[in-house]
């Protein structure tokens, strides 16, 4: 296995501890990733209680099936994000389909558009949260504070060229939110599961 193919030690160790049934490992995992899981679920579902339920379901799945995560396939964080997306989309489809069956407004096409939109939005949030801090800081200055690249460079204490590079890379990462087949993307985040 090449060096960069070796999964992070923490991910491997966590998977092994979960597989041994260590309750403390689940607690550590929850402490580290519950806000990510809940945030992604809430973004897809738009409902606090439903996001709470999906969060609980994600960690229950991890506890009951720790071997479904393979550290060689990517970071634990990405796997949890993909699992969250899959379970949240399943819940959204189930609740919306039931509402349609009861004669609620909309069509199945509306439901699929809603699922696609929620999935892309959740993926964009995940990308922003996961990108390196220098890229995120440049994007925040440029897009939320309406700074041009020169002002961004000055605020960050970098050259104009470096500010442009950070903005370009950040935007390239965000552009992948619509692309399910992006290399390195968490599986299941880019497409409607």
TrEMBL record:
GO MF, one example: sigma factor activity
Keyword flag Transcription regulation: yes
InterPro entries noted in UniProt: RNA_pol_sigma-70-like, RNA_pol_sigma-70_dom, RNA_pol_sigma70_r2, RNA_pol_sigma_r2, RNA_pol_sigma_r3/r4-like, WH-like_DNA-bd_sf
Domain RNA polymerase sigma-70 region stretches: 29-94
Keywords, sorted A to Z: Sigma factor, Transcription, Transcription regulation
GO biological process: DNA-templated transcription initiation
NCBIfam families: sigma70-ECF
PANTHER family for the chain: RNA POLYMERASE ECF-TYPE SIGMA FACTO, RNA POLYMERASE SIGMA FACTOR SIGZ
Entry's family note: Belongs to the sigma-70 factor family. ECF subfamily.
Protein name (record): Sigma-70 family RNA polymerase sigma factor
